[in-house]
Amino acid sequence: MDQPNKLSPISVALHWLVGLGMIALTAIGLYMSRAEVWALYPIHKSVGVLLFVLILARVVWRLKNGWPAHLAGGSKLEQALAKLVHWLLILATLAMPISGMMNSGAGGHGIDVFGLQIVPSQHSADKPDQALPYNAGVAELGDEMHEWIAYLLILALVLHVAGALKHHLVYKDGVLRRMLGSRIEP
Ligand code: HEM
Ligand code: HEM
Questions:
Q1: What angle do CA 96, 100, 134 make, to 5 degrees?
Q2: pLDDT value at position 128?
Q3: Is the distance from the beta carbon of residue 170 to the nearest atom of ligand 1 less than 6 Å?
Q4: In terms of Cα–Cα distance, which of 178, 184, 165 is closest to 11?
Q5: Nearest protein CA to atom 41 of ligand 1, as residue
Q6: Which residues belong to any copy of the Cytochrome b561 bacterial/Ni-hydrogenase domain (predicted)?
Q7: How far apart, in whole angstroms, are the C-alpha atoms of residue 34 and residue 118?
């Protein structure tokens, strides 16, 4: 379990695996959809579904373990902002894969993990190269959510990284070192 001066290796590993995975998928998602690099779609979707499993483990772990204990640095306003941003980030880790799966699954494009089929694709007989949605409304909602929540995620992440750097460079407390696995002075 997490201690105020030392986070459990599970918290640290889940934070960085999920965090760096989210950053990579955001960058790939924005690039592939704007540059229309279709070959990246199945890789983005497969990694996203696998990351979702880790994300669920992380959310369960957070619910069981509570949030890391607060450390000294920062005004009351900064502390409240940090809490809000942590909530936005963790909710975005759930909303991004769910909306992606709504878009691909309900849109008839299919979902598979490196060839292992999870939801089959569906095509009309007369236009075999076009996906036929199972539920166009759900697919459209997923598509909109996937794009707009990504913008919110990027904003939250900029604030999050700025906060981590401010703790490290200005307050010189152990917030960043603790998330890197170090035992810090209480
Ligand atoms: C290079 C990027 C990142 C850095 C430098 C970073 C740094 C940190 C640090 C230092 C903490 C500890 C805060 C505390 O002790 O109160 C933290 C916590 C947290 N971070 Fe990040 N982070 C990064 C990326 C991400 C990403 C991409 C996400 C999610 C999408 C994320 C989600 C969270 C959450 C939810 C917490 C609260 C504690 C927890 O649940 O483990 N972080 N981060
Ligand atoms: C797990 C975290 C995920 C993140 C952070 C993420 C991020 C993104 C981003 C930022 C985009 C560009 C959005 C846009 O501007 O339209 C995108 C596109 C896309 N993502 Fe994800 N994604 C994730 C998971 C998934 C999953 C699990 C699936 C499906 C199984 C998926 C399917 C797609 C598809 C089909 C597009 C292209 C949408 C279009 O061309 O309009 N994503 N993703």
A1: 145
A2: 85
A3: no
A4: 178
A5: 15
A6: 8-181
A7: 26
Q: Is 142 in the pocket of ligand 2 (CB under 6 A)?
A: no
pLDDT at residue 133, as a whole number: 96
Tell whether ligand 2 has an atom less than 6 A from the beta carbon of residue 96. Answer: yes
- Centre of ligand 2 from the C-alpha of residue 77, in Å: 33
Ligand nearest to the CA of 22: 2
Q: Which pLDDT value is given to residue 91?
A: 97
Could you tell me the two tokens for 171?
A: 């307050």
Q: Which ligand is nearest to the CA of 52?
A: 2
pLDDT the model gives residue 142: 98
Other beta carbons within 10 Å of 26: 17
User: Residue 110 in 3-state DSSP?
Assistant: coil
- Going from the first residue of the chain to its last (186 residues), give the mean pLDDT of each consecutive group of 10, the final group possibly shorter: 92 98 98 97 98 98 90 85 96 98 98 97 89 97 98 98 95 93 87
Place of tokens 């960058």: 27
Distance from Cα 142 to the centre of ligand 2, integer Å: 10
b/e code 118-136 from CB counts within 10 Å (16+ = b): ebeeeeeeeeeeebebeee
